[in-house]
Fold:
Amino acid sequence: MSEQPLLNQVAVVAGATRGAGRGIARMLGAAGATVYCTGRSVMGQPATPGRPETIEETAELVSAEGGRGIAIRTDHTVEPEVERLFARVRAETGRLDILVNDIWGGDTLTEWGKPFWKLSVAQGREMQERQSTAISLRAVTASR
Structure:
């Protein structure tokens, strides 16, 4: 088996700024993929207070692992931004082989340290709606 089984494969990792999304993007790079690293935090403009990670850093990590990392700032809840992302991927590569959804954006809605029965139902619902909207936008746009 090849050391880079995903060589010449194209991936989009939505939410590649930090955490699991960053880890998935890095491993796709190690497997040889071209990885479009998307998220809202870019150098000089963090989307989440107190979180310095950026998609540019993730793209550099992907390339260091042996793949090709490409950072594209995208708010996956904004349809025109999602459309631009997939139009660019289509124009540059002609295809998309792997789509990973790992967006979060719920930091301001999360109530850490509270028992679940004291959490805001409205904030929990909004978090779910954000996820659902972003997933729907990507699915529709990627299929065009």
User: Anything to note?
Assistant: The first strand starts at residue 10 and ends at 14. The mean pLDDT is 87.
